[in-house]
Design goal:
single chain, mainly alpha, 0% strand
Amino acid sequence: MFSILKNKNLQPLQHYEFRIFIVARFFLIMALRMLGTVAAYKLFKLTQSSFSIGLAGLSEFIPVFLLALYAGHVIDKSDKRTLLLKAVICYSVCVVALVFITSDWFEQNINSKSPQIFFYTVIFFTGAIRAFAGPTTNAIISQLVPRDVLHFASNISSSTWLAASITGHASAGFFIAWFGVHITFYIILGYAIIAAILIAHIKKKPIASKQQDKAWDSVKEGLSFVYNNKIMLGAISLDLFAVLFGGAVALIPEFADKILKVGPIGFGWLNAAIDIGSVIMIVTLTLKPMKRKQGFKMFYAVAGFGICIIIFGFSQWYWLSFLALLIAGMFDGISVIIRGTILQLTTPDDKRGRVSSVNSLFINSSNELGQFESGFMARAMGTVPSVIFGGAMTLIVAIITWFKAPGLRKFEY
């Protein structure tokens, strides 16, 4: 075993299936982030409106919102490896659909006054798939490593997610510039297929929950657990509103094109800036974890994130905009580490699917809802005022939660 794996923080990588999972997750997340970036770019080029990107976010949010809680029940009653493999295969089918609708034949022969409708339809189905796939990737980690290194595994998984997100965002801009949107979707399809092949090498996993509860009773049990865990509820709620109001990323295509006046490559790097900052912080905290006052630090991280979004809204210089988003990502990385650790350490094995689904409903779907909110507010207030408003609201939420959630403020692990 490589000597670097002797570092206690990296011990999860000693386990073969966890290594396979991490590589598979890297390719899968890279594919998904590229898909979102390329679809947003194409939609903006078709419509010249950030509102269309907001509608794309709404298209993905609706199925996640409707299915997330039921998905948690299914995940806890299923072999998580097989469920994840099926989800990745379904994602691949959606990418094939995007390859088709961006082909020259389709664009020349299918007359439609609203070509973006086809994108919204495919994105809707990716949202439905993600309602199951997202929580499954979180829930399966506890079956790949021993419990005593579970929190380190969570940090490594988060770092992998962000590294893949950076690569996906940035390389999407390069690929659009070099090959065009259509060929880029072929590349995304290749990444999804690699992820499916790797996941197939993980053995099937035992089902943790043996209870035969009805779906609704099972869902209520998961919701009740999160609601009664005030530390987890506070962390999830704080992140929810920060993501909801701080969704400046949704408006980056318009900022890049109309305000900062950069091409696809500049757009790709700007789109990746938050994730670059996050992975820098998460890798740092993985190798040198926070020792004390984690809850206290989470509040300052969310407030700092809001301030950076305000600076991004005011900026008309590319490098200042990039730096503001980079630092915002570093603050976000602190929040991700703390929330992810709380989730892994305080959740019983038989409830991991349901609790991960509640987390997905609050956090991951809030990205899409925040995307819609940003697109709607951009139309109502203008692009720059809407971003400044979102950053200010994030700051206000952090201040209010500081007084409303004293348990989270004092939390340590």
